[in-house]
Every structure is written in C-alpha cells, then in structure tokens.
Amino acid sequence: MSLALLFPGQGTQHPAMLSWLDQEPAARDALSLLDAALGRDWRNRLQDQAWSSSNTVAQSVLTGLGIAAWSCLAPYVASPVVCAGYSVGELPAFCAAGVFDAATAMQLAQVRAAAMERSVAGQDTGLTAVQGVGQPIIEAACARHAVAVAIRQSADRFVLGGLAEAILRAEIDLASRGARCTRLAVRVASHTTLVAAAARDFGQQLEAMTFQTPHTALVCNLTGTAVRAAAELKRALAEQIANTVRWDECMEWIAERRVACVLEVGPGSSLSKLWNEIHPEVPARSIDEFRSAEAVIRWLRASVV
Fold first, then answer.
1. Closest Cα partner for 118 from 202, 206, 234, 183?
2. Which residues of the chain fall below pLDDT 70?
3. pTM reported for the whole predicted model
4. How far apart are CA 278 and CA 153, in angstroms?
5. Neighbours of 183 (CB within 10 A)
6. At 35, is the secondary structure helix, strand, or coil?
7. Residue 129 in 3-state DSSP?
8. How many CB atoms lie within 10 A of CB 33?
9. What is the pLDDT of residues 211-233, one digit of tens each?
10. What does the DSSP 8-state code read for residue 41?
11. What integer pLDDT is reported at residue 185 of this predicted model?
C-alpha cells in the first residue's frame, strides 16, 4: 500500500493558508527562502489580492509552502511512491522527488514567473475554468473564439486560456450550451501558445542545470506519465508552460498504481476534491484541512498500511 503526493497550482492561495507551518521547526529553512524572495511580511501582504495573485508572488508562495509542508511530514511517514504537481506545482513536486533542492526550486519559481510575465507583456490574457460540457463542445468553442485548452482536468472539466476578449466570448458561448464558467485570478494565459517564449526561455535556463534522478515516480503535466531521464524531465518542466496540462491523464496514471491514499500538499483542496470525485475508492485529503503536522501524520499513518 502506498502514498501519492499532489502539489497544487495558482489560484489555490489564500491569506490563512497553512498558518501552522510558522510554528514548525522543520519548515523554517523553506520559509526563510520565501522571506528572502518576497520579504518577511509576505504573509501579512496576502490580504492584498492584487499582490497575492501576481505571478511572482503566487508561484513563489506555492513552491515555498509545498516544500515547507512536505519537510515537516517526510521524516514521519512512508516515502511516496509517486509525486505530481499541477502547473507550477511541478516545482515542489520535483523537489520532493529529489530532482533538485529547495533553494533551486524557489529560484526557478521566480525565473518561471518572470519569463511568463515577459511573454504576455502588453496583452490582456487569462484563464477561465469550464465545467459541465464535454470535450467536443469545448474544442468547437476554442476553434470559434481563438482560445485554447490550457488544462484538462476530467471529461467535463477544463481550463481555457487566451486573450481576455476571446475568453469572454467563449464564456458567453459555452454558458449558452450549459457550461459553468469561472474566471480565474491568473493574469497570464498559461499552458497556451501565447506563452511559448516563456517556455523557450525557461528551457534555456534548465539546460545548464544538473537534475538528479528522481527517487520516486514523477508524473509530468506534459506527458501524463512518469518521466525519469534528466533531459526529458527538463523538457517536460519547460514545455508544460506552453502546452496543455494533461491532469486527467496524470490522475489515471497514479490510480493505476493502486495507491492507498492521496495527499494534496499545499493550500486549498481543489486537487483532492477532484480526485475524490473521480476515484472515490482511494481517499484523498489536503493538508490545508488540518491544523498541525501531527494531525496530517496521524491520518497518513492510519491510511497507508
């Protein structure tokens, strides 16, 4: 029996997220990296939605908190058999799998965010979540309105990206066909060709780096499968920026390994809720549901037998 770790992406952050980490000695190193990146008052500034939803802040916070949280849990629970990260969540996932260290992950979060901001400078772009219609309707709407599928979550859940005006037209169209559309607090059309320059820039940064072989299966957004070789890991981490995140396939790959439970390591509970809807036979929870590392550890020890 075994544990799978999922690391969430942008849009899950909130002012009260994982506040118990501030009292955990094991989290101090990762939190100090966040202090260095964003300033020691970063948690207080999360009340400012414009600041907290900016690419640099959101990607740094999600990376740092994911690493800090897993640092508190790792010594006390079974090693995961698989890790996966959703969008920028791949950075803490790669770190948890031993591909690079926490300092490198935090540096890459800032490099990634800056590259994405540059790639859409002067353009009004974004993302919208769409639920309740199937892929044929989604693909037809994308073709009509020049938007793209940024993320596939399930058979009737998608995230679309593009220019803001095009997204609005697509939302109106899809709503008339029974879809529920929710604009996300992300100001970059991630995982579309609009950020192709960011993928190239980030890939060039990764080329000079040393990647270690992951010590657990590492399922990548680009492929929907586990990737092991360093060159392929670099390609997957860079190219997912401008390509559809195949999260539905990532979840299926994990489910096929018959894991005992799934833990979402980060703020919010979007990934664990989605998992429970699709694979209710395998329990999933988010660490954001707990008030201490000890509570998370108790649940994991009871679930991974």
1. 202
2. 1, 305
3. 0.96
4. 10
5. 13
6. helix
7. strand
8. 21
9. 999 999 999 999 999 999 999 99
10. T
11. 86
